[in-house]
């Protein structure tokens, strides 16, 4: 029985990974074709997927991704996909509980400045947004703030409009 459970679990991971790739590709194609983003977004390596994990918070203005511990301290952070050095991490977020963490609920508070990737369905979007930040950082010589979220929302509206699900 354990072998069967392991095989089923492995199969579900394979399906989930195919779905993740499809989600990523559909959004990347939209950003490149409709919004003029760099074509490098269309190329993803298997290693790129290592960036994805539940519990990331994206700072929509700075392009930083924050991973929180259960107690609300910042475990690590990256600018796009580039990890922040420990000194910069401490300078940016301190060594104490993150100010947007609510200890009573064990969750981060929702705000317009942050987007929280708290489910597996969102993870392709986390990777795409991180790679968008990398691309914009390179194009704009590191200038902030970033203003790409409206294009991500447009991609969601484009990819998930009801007419796309109607049979022919």
UniProtKB/TrEMBL annotation:
InterPro entries: HAD-like_sf (IPR036412), HAD-SF_hydro_IG_5-nucl (IPR008380). It comes from the Eukaryota. Coiled coil: none annotated. GO terms for molecular function: 5'-nucleotidase activity; metal ion binding. Pfam families: 5_nucleotid. Keywords: Hydrolase, Magnesium, Metal-binding. This is 5'-nucleotidase domain-containing protein 1. It comes from Balaenoptera physalus.
